[in-house]
Amino acid sequence: MSQLITTNGKKIILDRTFTASPTLTAPSQFKVGTGTTAPTLADTDLGTAVSIDGDNFKAFVSGYPSLDTTNIQATTRCFLNSLEANGNDLTEFGIVNSDGSPLLFSRAVHTAISKTTSNEITYIQKDKIL
């Protein structure tokens, strides 16, 4: 899976790190889609977002992201149940914040997963500062 933090994601990091009262919210939601174009820094949304459950985003699994300060890594877990995003060959995943106009923090493209009522999908993304 190819994944990267977008330019807007970097803006979120800077705002939340160096502003006494940040104006951008932290990433807390995810989106899925059927786009296949490789991620770029300039991405502001998924290529082709799909409805998860009447909306095009969903909150992270409770308790995430988890932070590992020893390894300088954040782990995000996102879950689609058997009733969500069905009838799609999912090929992309993105993390967004919850601003009025959500900003795309990161985007990944992966091998297609045919989403039906017969399966549930967990996305686990690990972001590490090198």
Explain what the structure shows.
A hairpin with a 4-residue loop joins strand 4 and strand 5. The protein is mainly β and 130 residues long. The strands form two sheets. The protein has a five-stranded antiparallel sheet with strand order 1-7-6-2-3. Strands 4-5-8 form a three-stranded antiparallel sheet, with no helix packed on it. It has one domain (2-128). The protein starts with a strand and ends with a strand. The longest helix is centred in the N-terminal third of the chain and has 12 residues, at 7-18. 9% of the residues lie in helices and 42% in strands.
The gist of it:
By secondary structure, this protein is mostly beta strands. The chain has 1 helix and 8 strands, in the order E-H-E-E-E-E-E-E-E.
